[in-house]
Fold:
Amino acid sequence: MFTGLVERMGRLVSIEPQGAGTRLSIEHGYGPLDLGESISVNGACLTVVAADESRFYVDVSPETLDKTTLGAWQVGQALNLERALAFGARLGGHLVTGHVDGTGEIESLAPEGEMTRVGLVVPQALARYVARKGSICVDGVSLTVNDVADRTAHTRVDLFIIPHTLRETTLGLVRVGSRVNLEIDLIARYTERLLASASPLR
Structure:
């Protein structure tokens, strides 16, 4: 479990075929990491399979490569990193699992004072889970939805990104047309399931 509060930016060092999947090497700067621990990398929960003082290695399945932006990553690019939430720690963002639900596309970027207004296209399959003033996780960053506009083929979500987030995460590097990993709010997912399985009142 994660919070969506990015701890640092890492860098993708290498991409190597590994069986049916891919092994990634990521420069991190954390110091010693535990084998088997989970790290959110641009919003995807990945397991450390090897590590040294400066890098950790993760194996990525074909499913993850297909359903997230990981398959398009390039050596040298910056990545958002967050280690798993410890029991008793403050929850400053929102509950994030690191299980990416789909990808979205940056439609617009517009400065508004010191902040940047981001227009994000969300696929129809995820749109019903997104609500004004609710939470959404974008490339591992917990963000508050400022507005939602439903269109015929997709939904546009407006987000305001503060200067700190632009400096300390990869959201300061996105451009119009960039694809990003999305995770919808965990509570919305369970609420839908509960309502769908509820017995009708008699």
Q: What stands out?
A: DSSP finds four helices and twelve strands in the chain. The chain has a mean pLDDT of 92.
